[in-house]
Structure formats: C-alpha cells, structure tokens
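Allow me, if you will, to draw on your knowledge of protein folds for a short while. The matter concerns a single protein, recorded as an amino acid sequence and a row of backbone structure tokens. Kindly check, if you would, that the fold set down in the tokens agrees with what the sequence suggests. You will find the record immediately after this paragraph.
***
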Amino acid sequence: MNHMVGKSSVQLENQVYILNSASIVGKKEGEGPLGELFDMVGENDLFGCNTWEEAESNLQRDAVYMALGKAGKKAEDIRFLFAGDLLGQSIATSFGIASYQIPLLGVYGACSTCGESLTLGAMTVAAGYADYVACVTSSHYASAEKEFRFPLEYGNQRPLSASWTVTGSGAFILGKERENSPQGQPPRAAITGMTVGRIVDYGLKDSMNMGACMAPAAADTLAQHFRDFGVTPGEYDRIITGDLGSVGQTVLLDLLREQGYDIAEQHMDCGMEIFDAQTQDTHAGGSGCGCSAVTLSAYILKQLEEHHWKKVLFMPTGALLSKTSFNEGKSVPGIAHALVLVAL
C-alpha cells in the first residue's frame, strides 16, 4: 500500500499515470523558445472574448477538452476535477469548467497550483478513490496584472526583478492503469511520489520580486524531499522549479548550498525556459499558474517520453499574497510542492 515517507512525503506503491495532457498559450508564449511544442497558440490574448477573465476561463475549458480528447476520455469518465487559478474566488476556474459538470475540488497555491492539483489528484487515484481524474490550472498576464498590480492601461514601469505572468493553461488526465490513447500513445509519464511543502516566510515584502519571495519555500521543500527519501540531487536528471526566474534561481542555489546540497547541475526553471531573456522583454522570467503547467505538458513530459530524461523532480512554486495583504504591508510567504516523475 502507499506509505508516508519522512515528515512531508508520500511514496506511491502503485504509480499513477499521466495518460495525456494539453497546453494552450498566448501569443507572447508562442513566440518563445517552446512555441512549437504547445498544442495551441492564440492569435491574441483575448482569444475571441470580451474580457481578460473570460479569456482565461476559455483557456481552462479548452485545455481540458483537448486533454480529454488526446486521452480518449469523456467528461463522464472523470471522477474528480482538481483545478485552480490566480484570480479572486478562482473565477477563471468556476466559469471555465462549470459546463463539464465534473465534481470539482478547487485548489489554490498561487503559482504552485499545478503541483498541488497533481499531488492531490495522484493521491486520490493511488488511494483507489478514482480511476481517472483531471487536473487543470491557468493564468493570464492581463487578468493577473489587474488582480495583483496595475491594469495594463496604467503603463507602469516594471523593475528587472519582476516576472511576466504566463498566459496559458495546462490540463492533465491521470489514471491508475497503464493504458494507451486511441492513437496508440502510451502514458506520457508516471508519478511515483511527492513532497508536500509548507508555508515559508522570510519577511520579504517586494511583490515585484516574486522569485526571491518563493525561493526559501523551494529550498525548504527540496531539502525536506532529500531527507525524506534519503536521496541526493544526483538522483534526478532535472530538478525543475516552476516560477523562480533568474533572481529566484540564484537565491535557491545559495540557500541549498548552505544546507549542504548543490543542485546547480540539475536545476531548471520553467519561468526561465518559456521566454527568451535576450529577445523577449520579460525581465526575470515567467510566472503564474500556467507557467509550470504548460511547460510540463509541452516540454518536460516530451523529454521523459523520448527518454532524454529518466527521472525528474517537478516542483512549482507559489507566492501567497493578495492585493489586500500587500496593501496592508504584509510580507509575501511562499510554498512549493514537489512530484517525482519517471519515464516509462
């Protein structure tokens, strides 16, 4: 049976399969280094809608639709849906996927939401409470700027430490059995374990430097994962954070070295992969719920499918702030959740 490992981790005796997935992104993301790998790229970031929020809802709806089709499943085959976004009351999710009428467990972990939804989904399948679940997350540059910072019309200047919220949605279908898609494609990868993060707050208050705010939580979860499973960084082909960007990466590497772990050789950050730092004006890199989700679907799982990598640790990171907490002078706590993904 599945069992707890150490203080914060779970080892799955029966691995859970990522049967298939889908990724949809905006125009800027499509112009980046991973552009050709995404399933769909929008011609503009309104995606034919009247508002940014409606556009983000449509991203989730369409990503789930595509993932279901690629996996050869219908909405009625899915026992539970784990979903979330960055907006207040998770409105991108509630308006986006209501039509599917799948029992919903809404989750919020800021930019770590993809990791949280996959963790909960995999636990549910492994425990025998579902044969199939779907996990979907999204973010949108314009809706997030309006929610957390300034509307685009304000034209504020962004500091070099700022990250660019990814416009995109990634959806994943998890199953308990190793089964091929209608096209004969085997599952994309398997989930074998996870480490659930805790809230870590170093007292940083700069919402324009999310990488530095989230890096302590990433370091905490990683160190706990190494202790719980009794492994070293060399166990993995890649250790992949979600949204730290170039600033957060430096902080993470320094914090881990202080604890005796050097992950410089294995570390990769989705926010640094999705945009070209030299040609795209995104400063520190990408962030948002959609950042790690679309990078996982389009790029990371592809590397596992093609056996360029055999085993990776996927760990989206989140900054747990709101415009209310920021305006009241509160610090920006962070959280990170890690999943072990293996090639089949």
